[in-house]
């Protein structure tokens, strides 16, 4: 996947999440959300490669990156 395509997917997810959920109240809250998304990615990674769902892997990486982007946009 090219960087530009991946970046657009992440931006779209960050915008979607921003419309659905209120702004982060603090870096602590942002950290918790990022960690939750990353942990969901880790659950997929820990599966045997034959059991991994490539779409779930991509979705969790996108959501993790989107929450990082939101943190940068909202709190930094």
Summarize the SSE layout with pairings.
Blueprint lengths: L2 H18 L6 H19 L8 H22 L1
Tell me how many strands there are: 0
What is the helical fraction, as a range of percent? Answer: over 70%
Order of helices and strands: HHH
How much beta, percentage-wise? Answer: under 5%
Structural class: mainly alpha
* Distance separating the two termini: 28 Å
As residue ranges, the low-confidence spans are none
Mean pLDDT: 96
Morphology? globular
What is the overall number of helices? 3
Radius of gyration: 13 Å
Largest sheet: none
Structural commentary:
With about 80 residues, the chain is mainly α. The chain contains 3 helices and no strands. It is globular and about 40 Å long. The chain starts with a helix and ends with a helix.
Provide a compact summary of the structure.
By secondary structure, the chain is mainly α.
Record keyword descriptors for this entry:
76 residues; mainly alpha; 3 helices; 0% strand
């Amino acid at each position: 996947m090219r960087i530009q395509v991946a970046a657009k997917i992440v931006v779209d997810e960050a915008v979607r999440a921003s419309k659905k959920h209120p702004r982060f109240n603090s870096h602590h809250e942002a950290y918790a959300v990022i960690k939750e998304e990353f942990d969901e990615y880790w659950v997929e990674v820990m599966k045997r490669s034959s059991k991994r769902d490539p779409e779930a892997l991509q979705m969790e990486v996108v959501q993790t990156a989107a929450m990082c982007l939101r943190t940068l946009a909202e709190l930094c």
